[in-house]
Amino acid sequence: MKLSTLPALALLIGLGAAQAAELTVSAAASLNNAFQELAPAFEAAHPGTKLQYNFAASGALLQQIAKGAPVDVFVSADQATMDQAQAQGLVKREQRRNVMSNSLVLIVPAASTQPPRSLGDLAQPAYQRVAIGLPASVPVGRYTQQVLQAAGLWTAIEPRMIGANNVRQALDYVARGEVDAGFVYATDAALVPGKVKVALTVPTTEPILYPAAPMAGSAQPELAQRFVQWLLSPPAQAVLARHGFGQPR
Question: Which residue ranges does UniProt annotate as crossing the membrane (predicted)?
Fold first, then answer.
């Protein structure tokens, strides 16, 4: 190699390093498995990019972001949490997109011999412990509370509620047989078919839609926006569908 080519090579290496970027995505806990599968495809389509995920309840993620966590993209499991992010100026209304949908289910341990046939059955003595995401910070808990309130059952069920910090914790409680029943998303229930079974698919008072948005303070706003748009692409939607998510409506 000629010495004269070394500066050019060093420049190219330097440019490559400069183009490498980590994109931090804070996403609802229910997206964990699907997003892990999505990462290689996005990184392959955007050479030099590395996705870093942070999964938790949407409300907890918003609290982290509001306190200054360096996040590029936020994906919530509900509109209310993203509305709060927008109200705080953390995301821009015109940049948020609904990227997938889900459904609420009532599950019981796989060994259960008498699963509830209706929500009203949860008021029976057989269901003393019901796992529900904490409504203050966990979207699946808010959906559940709305459904039970609409059915006039919240007052009866709330004393039996075992609060979960996120939907995966509610799933674990049921899978381990530590509670008699629990509310999770259909996509979560499908992860452990040998440990839980779906007793009911529960219509919600509002559709379960996941909004995604680049953070207004992202150091990589263009890449963050591309990730949000990419979630709506046919390849990404195909992966999400394999994990049980529906298309955004």
Answer: none
